[in-house]
Amino acid sequence: MKKHKTTHFMAGILMLVFVGIFLVLTGRFLYIQVTGEIDGVSLEKWAEEKRTASYTIDSERGKIYDKNGMTLAYDRPTFRMYAIVDKAYTSNPEEPKHVDNPEKTAELLAPLLDLEEEEIRSTIEDGIKDERFQVEFGKEGKELSQQKRDEIAALNLPGIKFEKEPIRYYPNGVFASHILGFARETERETENGVKREITGIAGMEKEMNNLLSGKDGHISYQRDKYNKKLLDPSEVITKPEDGDDVYLTIDQKIQTLLEDSLSQVEEEYNPERITAVVMDPKTGEIVAMGNRPSYNPNSPSDVENWYNDVVSTPVEAGSTVKMFTWASAIEEGVYNGNETYKSGSYRPNEQIQSINDHNGGRGWGIITYDEGFQRSSNVAAAKLAWEKIGTDKFLEYLKAFDLDKETGIDLPNEVAGRILYNYSIEKITTSFGQGSTLTPIQQLKAASAIANDGKMMQPYVMKKIVNSTTGKNIKEKSPNVVGNPISKETSDKVLKLLESVVNGEHGTGKMYQIDDYTVGGKTGTAQIPNPESSSGAYLSGKENHIFSFLGMAPIEDPQLMIYVSVKKPELEPTETGSMPVSFIFTNVMENSLHYLNIDPDKDPERQIEEITIPELIGKPADKMKKTLTDKGLQVTVAGKGTITDASVKQGDKVLVNDHIILVTDKPVMPSIIGWSLRDVIQIAELLELKIETFGNGYTVTQNIKAGTPLKKGDYLGVEFKPPTKENAEGESQEETSGAD
């Protein structure tokens, strides 16, 4: 009886517990049903988020163009490959949508991805084993080209999918790389997780990053568990805003001339550094700029020199500074070019060490100051600064030429040189470019006053910013006069002196003469401080100098100004340091002036033969090729039949030996072996091909064989290599004669 009562008691307790639990659960369900919330979270909102897919629509980064609209940097589509391994993704076994045969998939993908079959198979099988929805294949499965993506897609392998991912691409490879810099994909934490975006790392890509970067869009829709849209997906789309386009002052053709010359000198002389700049002295526009060592912004690895030496590396300039010393003396009214002085050695007083001319202090006897400029006499420069101008007044002129400050050029990481002017000897050595330091861009800015009637121009590389959607200009730069350190009369007199350096009887710059234009300029041979010396000593030896030249042409009214320096070239016993410098200067100056249609100022009676292009479009290709060839032009025809496009148009004026490209209505790939980068880019644009370049120099391989029929959008891969020493000499001569 006692056991029976206990049983009833316990049953009652359990019943009360169950009733309590039931009431709590019922109350909870009623609460959820009435409020639609759990722990403050809206179930309706939670369910909507669970069935809503939300994605970012990437904006396109703005393009970078040269001054003529040639694309220098853009977002190129690439693809990331992945494999769906969850068999639940397949609704119809007859049409599998996941990887149903890892062995066959691995066998077919291996040769296209440059991976071992076992590696691909194990990646897929591990994903299946770990019950993952999809797997990826590391770096070999990323940044696939359109061509590679199409090859893989053509296999029709179940479960193999692709996601489009743009990368920043530079179609010209090693081309103005220190100006353009580069941009790469970076990751940034956001409220919605990690955001991948292309960000400028160096150069204009970094300087203009905010302008080039766009604003991403957004898309959301409701979907099932397999990420498929519902019939009524409630889709919401916010369109992306693409970044602005940036146009540079760089001229792609002149830049290519410069790059080719730099590569040839680098190959032949193996210098420690090369720096070169081409500037329009009338406007301050930087037309071309290059450094060696350089790098390919498409794959910036093992870079020897990140710095743009033109703006970031001040060095002792050497005798190019003498043009500013003479200009100061003339402007101050204390210069008489016919006055004589004793060259060789000069010691102002017993407290100052002797100043020697560059021929070991032997000098050339008693000569005029004009001849001293031709011969690049240190003694003449020292006497002008110390005795004629006066060191205090000379410092005022140096500052008037802005040699003590940054130029303000619109490139990152500019570093100004330093004028050493504390001691008497420093005040003298500065007059011939020793002790004080300058950057090439500081010298060019100052020299623009000499080339431009006394008006000193602000150098710049960004020409305009354009809205990529509307095509409207947002900002456009114009020439800016930033100083007037000398008068027009003084600039005219200095130009005559500069001309005498190149063309005079005793000039040190005879090597810089060119065929059709009169060049003026100033040579420089700067000593290099010994890094191991604590007493300020310099390196010794023939090669241990920075050889330079700052020149302009045509000298009566300079249209281009070029600075070139070559540091520590490897010279043969019979070679001088001016040889690599003059090779760059003469090639670039001569061909650039012809390209810009600047009238030659030499031999005015000799007419440069110009050829007027006839109507080409709609004409038979074979007939027009013969017509143009008979006129002395080099003609490449891409195809047979009727001409539909050409690299020139009716009425254009071209020179004998110029290269003309004709495209027909039945285009085929011509042989482009031995072509320059600019010609390859031109034919790719005419044929509307997607081009990818490797290396620099001249074409050695092309992936599309000559004679292959072409269609719009075909992929053209081209490999370039620098010419050999023997070829470089022949090609430079041929290029010059062609320009004539």
From TrEMBL:
<dbReference type="Pfam" id="PF03717">
    <property type="entry name" value="PBP_dimer"/>
</dbReference>
<comment type="pathway">
    <text>Cell wall biogenesis; peptidoglycan biosynthesis.</text>
</comment>
<dbReference type="InterPro" id="IPR012338">
    <property type="entry name" value="Beta-lactam/transpept-like"/>
</dbReference>
<comment type="similarity">
    <text>Belongs to the transpeptidase family.</text>
</comment>
<keyword id="KW-1133">Transmembrane helix</keyword>
<keyword id="KW-0812">Transmembrane</keyword>
<feature type="domain" description="PASTA">
    <location>
        <begin position="607"/>
        <end position="666"/>
    </location>
</feature>
<protein>
    <recommendedName>
        <fullName>serine-type D-Ala-D-Ala carboxypeptidase</fullName>
        <ecNumber>3.4.16.4</ecNumber>
    </recommendedName>
</protein>
<dbReference type="Pfam" id="PF00905">
    <property type="entry name" value="Transpeptidase"/>
</dbReference>
<feature type="region of interest" description="Disordered">
    <location>
        <begin position="717"/>
        <end position="740"/>
    </location>
</feature>
<dbReference type="InterPro" id="IPR050515">
    <property type="entry name" value="Beta-lactam/transpept"/>
</dbReference>
<dbReference type="InterPro" id="IPR005543">
    <property type="entry name" value="PASTA_dom"/>
</dbReference>
<dbReference type="Pfam" id="PF03793">
    <property type="entry name" value="PASTA"/>
</dbReference>
<dbReference type="InterPro" id="IPR036138">
    <property type="entry name" value="PBP_dimer_sf"/>
</dbReference>
<feature type="transmembrane region" description="Helical">
    <location>
        <begin position="12"/>
        <end position="31"/>
    </location>
</feature>
<keyword id="KW-0472">Membrane</keyword>
<dbReference type="InterPro" id="IPR005311">
    <property type="entry name" value="PBP_dimer"/>
</dbReference>
<dbReference type="InterPro" id="IPR001460">
    <property type="entry name" value="PCN-bd_Tpept"/>
</dbReference>
